[in-house]
Amino acid sequence: MLNIGAAIEGIWKGKLDGEDVTVFSAGGELIKLYRDEGTFEVLGVIGTGHCEFFVFGGALYVMNGSTYTKLSGGVLSSVEGYIPTIAVSCTPDGAGTSFEQLNLLTDKRRQLFSADGISTEYKLAESDIRSVESVYCSGVEITGYTVDTSAGKITFALPPAEGLNSLEVIYSKSGNDRGLITGCRKAMPFGGNSDGRIFLWGNAAKPNCRFHSELANGIPSAEYFPVNNFTLIGNDEITCIVQQYNKQLIFTKNAAYYSYCELNTDSLGNVYSSFPVFNLNGEKGCLLLMNGCVIDNMPVTLCGDGLNVWESTSVENEKNAVCISGAISETAKLAITFGVDSGNVKLFDFPISRELFFYAGGTLNVYDYTNGRWYRYNGMDMDEYCVCGQELYYSKGAYLYVFSESESYGGNTVNCSYRSAYTNFGYVSGRFDLVGAYADVYIVGPVSAAIAFEDAAGRNCSRVYRFAAGESGARRLEIRPHLKRCGPVRLTVTLTGAGSLNINGFTVKTKKRERSSRSGI
């Protein structure tokens, strides 16, 4: 556990420049953690707000709904945006071939002229420009010119040397809406071919809009979002986008759609990628504003009836939404009442242990999707989280914690418990004796397991098993409850420690009072 001194608003851990890096946002700054030393370093200012992190092109990008920054080569900087070449092979009068769209991230654009060696006046593609930023002739910057911003003209003191696309003019014109991109709060890489794109959503000003990046001069870029690269997804707010195989699944609160990369050819024979959207489900979607959560290649969302797994069927592109949260229905109902953009609800996968974590209102419920069972972790209240390999980094306020499959960080141990419903073990009437029970388990120490039985009258019996650090293997844990003349009985299993204990099966032996017969259940 570390006290950062300011509320943590985002955590990321992964490989960057060949190094294992852990960073987090706190107090409007991006901070690098040196875990072994228990120290941290401020990398720079990024502004406040929950942070979204993603890696693209070897750099770490950070979005928080107002700013867009990147960490590359150890340097933190604002993403200014790729300057698109809007026209090429232009003649001095401005006629030429359209090339790239304007970039929402920047007001700057680039125009290439094929200078004739005679003309001194060159007309830009637009009038009423703001300024000319720079001019290059054959790759060398020149300064001998004047600019008529109203007419969009440049007049040179001497004619630029002749050459094909030899004269490069970079100028700016007000009007681009950078906030459409920087206002997004969710991001994901996706691309159906060898090149990739970044997809953004979660802009409060355009809640039903999905934006995607484009190739910058033929190279995948997270800094080029053309003005026309957007899709309106119905009329409702996009809450979740997740990749499943070569498709995107896009969710609003009450509907689901799918999209994929489609190659098209324009009238000039140029091949380009598009991402069409199709209907998938008109009744269920996702009630949480989140990144996609997937278990066993199946998306999971919170719907009106609880947590649903989207299973594929034998019909192409068809999926069934199957509810898996019946055992925690009250918690699911509570989560639904919190609202779409509530920090009180989180849903994420911990794949190393094949567990789905569902956090709602201070309670962390865990779904083991190997055996389809739910259990609960106590004492893991969280604001932010990051899953990386065998570790879960999470924060509460200014405190940063690490939960690991193999260790507990800073002396913190984890408690979890399972409690069954009351049962009569199949007896229709009368009472029974509880005479024996055993559990087949696989343990990895250090861990302690307490097994307890309790009847409706409050009588109980229990036993505690302790396993040391490094101790592992299959075990059979036996207990002789000796509860006589029981009515309904329930079972409670409580685990404590940094290790793990997987229960593969539980057997209970009872004896019917009226017939002196024994039944193994």
Task: Detail the topology: elements first, then pairings.
Blueprint: E1 2-3, E2 8-16, E3 19-26, E4 29-34, E5 39-45, E6 52-56, E7 59-63, E8 68-72, E9 75-78, E10 85-90, E11 97-98, E12 108-113, E13 121-123, E14 131-137, E15 140-142, E16 145-148, E17 153-156, E18 167-172, H1 179-182, E19 186-190, E20 197-201, E21 209-212, E22 215-216, E23 219-220, E24 230-232, E25 238-244, E26 247-252, E27 256-260, E28 262-265, E29 271-274, E30 277-281, E31 290-291, E32 293-295, E33 298-303, E34 306-312, E35 319-323, H2 329-338, E36 345-350, E37 355-360, E38 363-368, E39 373-378, E40 384-388, E41 391-396, E42 399-404, E43 414-419, E44 432-444, E45 447-455, E46 460-467, E47 472-479, E48 483-486, E49 489-497, E50 500-512, E51 518-520
Features of the shown structure:
elongated; Jelly Rolls; disordered C terminus; 8-stranded antiparallel beta sheet; 521 residues; 2 helices; 6-stranded mixed beta sheet; mainly beta
